[in-house]
């Protein structure tokens, strides 16, 4: 039964999509949003923010986790997020500043 429903879906879905045209929506990204909010300065702001985040993500790997463990937990979370070092992309336990913070207490 599941196979029959799956075949029906794959046969009907393309026809349904092809029959109607989707309205054209302009793409909205954060550079466009900053340009709308701040005019021509928005592109400059986007450039600098992007450069700072790329530089931080590269410099973060050189900072020992023991140094970051001295910071408040919310600041550690923010800095790790900005360095794209959270979730499944996070460091191993021995490189995680929160691990050192918990080990001290």
Mean pLDDT: 78
Give the helices and strands as they follow along the chain.
HHHHHH
Shape: flat
Structure summary, number of beta strands: 0
Q: Estimate the helix proportion, in percent.
A: 55-70%
Radius of gyration: 23 Å
- Number of individual domains: 2
Question: How much of the polypeptide forms β-strand, as a percent range?
Answer: under 5%
Oligomer: single chain
Q: Give the class from helix and strand content and strand pairing.
A: mainly alpha
End-to-end C-alpha gap: 57 Å
Q: Count the helices. How many?
A: 6
Which segments are poorly predicted (pLDDT under 50) over 5 or more consecutive residues?
none
Main sheet attributes: strand count, strand direction, barrel closure: none
Keywords:
105 residues; mainly alpha; single chain; signal
Walk me through this protein's architecture.
The chain has 2 domains: 27-62; 64-105, no CATH class. It contains 6 helices and no strands. With 105 residues, the protein is mainly alpha-helical. It starts with a helix and ends with a helix. It is flat, with a radius of gyration of 23 Å. Helix 2 (30-38) packs across helix 3. Keywords: Signal.
Question: Care to give the gist of this entry?
Answer:
With 105 residues, the chain is mainly α.
């Amino acid at each position: 039964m599941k196979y029959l429903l799956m075949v029906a879906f794959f046969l009907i879905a393309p026809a349904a999509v092809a029959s109607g045209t989707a309205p054209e929506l302009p793409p909205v990204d954060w550079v466009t949003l900053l340009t709308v909010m701040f005019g021509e300065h928005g592109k400059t702001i986007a450039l600098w923010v992007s450069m700072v985040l790329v530089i931080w993500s590269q410099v973060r790997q050189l900072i020992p986790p023991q140094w970051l463990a001295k910071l408040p937990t919310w600041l550690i979370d923010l800095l790790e997020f900005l360095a794209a070092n959270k979730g499944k992309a996070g460091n191993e336990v021995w490189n995680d500043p929160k691990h050192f913070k918990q080990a001290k207490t």
